[in-house]
Structures are given as structure tokens and as C-alpha cells.
Amino acid sequence: MNRNPGTLPGNLRAKKILLIGTLGAGKTTIALDLAKRTGYSYISIDECRIQYSDSTIPGEESAWWHFLAACAEPAPGILEFSGGGPHVHEVREALLDSGLPVSIIWLDLPHETCIERASLRQKYVPAPFPWGPIDISVQAIYSSIERAWDTVWCAEPRFHTMRMRFQGSTPYPELFAKVAAALFTGMAGENPYPEEP
After folding, report:
1. Over the stretch 85-112, which tens digit does the pLDDT of each residue have?
2. Vertex 90, ends 84 and 69: CA angle to 5°?
3. Distances (CA, A) of 106 to 138, 150, 182, 194
4. Is residue 187 pLDDT above 70, yes or no?
5. How far is the C-alpha of 139 from the C-alpha of 92, rounded, in Å?
6. Residue 59 burial class via C-beta count within 10 angstroms: exposed 0-12, middle 13-18, buried 19 and up
7. Do 123 and 131 meet the contact criterion of CB atoms below 8 Å apart?
8. DSSP string, the chain
9. Residue 36 to residue 42: CA distance in whole angstroms
10. For the chain, which residues make up each domain, given as ranges?
């Protein structure tokens, strides 16, 4: 994959950026590139699981405690988790507790693309529960995000939310450029790239 996303504006306003999406949507790749180019810290629930969990329920609770603490910290950051599931309200409240502006981007790609990418994933992430087949997990997580999108993320007027739909064939530099433009030039008005035809 060609990952040459270019540069971002030098006059960044401190904020929290939360990337959400189902397995294989590209959250980690984009989040790491955003962190590198903004100088913001990066944290994901999966990184917290790797660092603080041991595949037990207490380990999962510890991972979530650390992730929520990062969400609430009054410092800019790039954050990543699915955007659905049982912790959405806690994440929302922690982001509000940070006191910073919050931008949330839902990376919405075709399920076939996400399934293909997630099938190639080799990183082990400890969890106290077994994952189901990837095709079922991608759909289940997507449905959970859909339920939370209007009722949790978009319902908070202090959040700047953008659902960005991309085709599976969108080259990475173009996808990154659209996300960066939405984050750093779309703050004053509507997202300039809400979805790709």
C-alpha cells in the first residue's frame, strides 16, 4: 500500500479525534498517520488490550479503564475503537470530560473490503471472549456502530461528527487526504467530503 498522505496544516487547534469503524476499515493506519503528522498522542482500545489485558475479564476492564482515561485527558489525541458496543456512553462522557473539541470520523467502507483486510490481520489482541468468524464480526460491529451513530455520537451537539463512505478501491493517499481535509478544513462548516460516490 502506498502510504504517502502528505502534510497537514501547521496551525492545528488542540482537539480529540476519534476514529471509528468496523474491523478492517483502516482506523489504525489512518490514526497512526494522523498522529505522526499532528504530533498528537495515539491510543486505541486494542493497544490498551495488548498492554494491560491478559485475556481475562479483569484484564479487559483494565484495558478499558486506561482507554477511557486517555479519552478524558485534557490533551489532544488520536483515539480509536469500533464506535459501537457496551462502552459507547462511557467513551462519550470521557471525551466530554476532556474539555477539548471532539471530532469523530466513521470510516465506512464496503463490508467485502473490511472482511478481506481483517482476514489478513496478524496482530494478536487479548480478549476475554472468543471472536466469531470475521464476516459475521464485521457485520455485527457495523450494526452496533449504526445503532450508536445517531443516538450517541451525532446526538451530542459538542461533537463534530462525519460519516465518511469510501469505495474499497479508494487509494490510501486519497482516503487520507479526504479525512485530513474533513478534520482540518471542515471544522467551520460541513464536511467537504461526506461520502464518495
Report:
1. 999 999 999 999 999 999 999 999 999 9
2. 115
3. 14, 12, 12, 10
4. no
5. 23
6. middle
7. no
8. ---------SSPPP-EEEEE-STTSSHHHHHHHHHHHH--EEEEHHHHHHHH--SSHHHHHHHHHHHHHHHHSSS-EEEE--S-STTHHHHHHHHHHT-S-EEEEEEE--HHHHHHHHHH-------SS----HHHHHHHHHHHHHHHIIIIITT-TTEEEEEEE--TT--HHHHHHHHHHHHHTSSSSS-S-SB--
9. 9
10. 16-184
Q: What is the pLDDT of residues 45-78, one digit of tens each?
A: 999 999 999 999 999 999 999 999 999 999 999 9
Amino acid, res. 2: N
Instruction: Quote the CATH superfamily of domain 16-184.
Output: P-loop containing nucleotide triphosphate hydrolases (3.40.50.300)
- Grade residue 8 by pLDDT with cuts at 50, 70 and 90: very low
